[in-house]
Design goal:
Layout lengths: L4 E5 L4 H13 L2 E6 L2 H13 L7 E4 L5 H11 L5 E6 L14 H28 L3 E6 L2 H4 L7 H21 L4 E8 L5 H6 L11 H12 L10 E4 L3
Parallel strand pairs: 1-2, 1-4, 2-3, 4-5, 5-6, 6-7
Helix pairs in contact: 1-8, 3-4, 4-6
Length: 235
């Protein structure tokens, strides 16, 4: 029996590491792209501290490029077992519109929206041939709040993720390709603790909590969920 394979983009980040751990514990073959050796080292330390002996298959690849997407999905489908694409790559910035650098806009479009489009474009025919699968994307609260002041670029690009998710769900449903998104509130990561030292940590989501929801959407029970944008919050 072919082992299920899960591609996790952004798998070396604060949320991604917890998601990688979740799918390794589940017994999946996990593929994680990376940019720098430091990311690989950080993920290995995290998995060691979590007591996980299994390791993902790593490849150096740029998820904003067609070549990087192709390489990642080809590796995930090496034995024909590609079933899940967990698309966590993303970026963030905030500030008033007159202070927003156009380069920041381009960067967020590339990271938040184009990566989902390109990954889906390559993944769909492979998942269709494999009999179906799951794609999970990451939206955000500002994308669901009818816009957010001082986050125009971020909210707009995450709104694109919401629309892409819903459209892809309708397109893939007949082929048993389920496409859903999580829309988390503030995540308890080192980066967020550094940038928001006065935040209410009791209301922040842990990466493990979000990983559990993603695991549900990518699991057997998630087969009846399609086109959902799941709002995750402790508020």
């Amino acid at each position: 029996m072919t082992q299920h394979s899960t591609l996790i983009t952004g798998g070396t980040g604060g949320l991604g590491r917890a998601v990688v751990a979740h799918f390794l514990r589940k017994g999946d073959r996990v593929v994680v792209p990376w940019h720098s050796e430091a990311e690989v080292d950080g993920l290995n330390v995290f998995l060691d501290e979590a007591g996980i002996d299994a390791r993902p298959e790593m490849l150096q690849a740029d998820m904003t490029s067609p070549e990087g997407i192709d390489a990642a999905i080809n590796l995930a489908n090496r034995d024909g077992g590609f079933r899940n694409a967990i698309l966590l790559v993303g970026g963030f910035s905030m500030g008033p519109i007159d202070k927003t650098d156009p380069n920041d806009w381009d960067r967020l479009v590339a990271l938040n929206a184009t990566t989902v489009f390109r990954a889906a474009k390559v993944a769909f025919p492979v998942l269709r041939e494999n009999g179906g699968g799951r794609i999970v994307t990451v939206a955000a609260h500002p994308a669901l709040d009818r816009g957010t002041a001082n986050m125009a670029a971020y909210a707009a690009t995450k709104s694109a993720v919401v629309s892409l998710t819903r459209s892809l769900a309708k397109e893939g449903g007949k082929d048993w390709i389920r496409v859903n998104a999580v829309a988390p509130d503030v995540i308890d990561t080192p980066a967020n603790r550094s940038s928001m030292p006065d935040g209410d940590l009791e209301k922040w989501l842990t990466p493990d909590e979000i990983a559990g929801v993603i695991g549900f959407l990518a699991g057997d029970a998630g087969g009846v969920v399609n086109g959902a944008i799941l709002t995750l919050t402790k508020g």
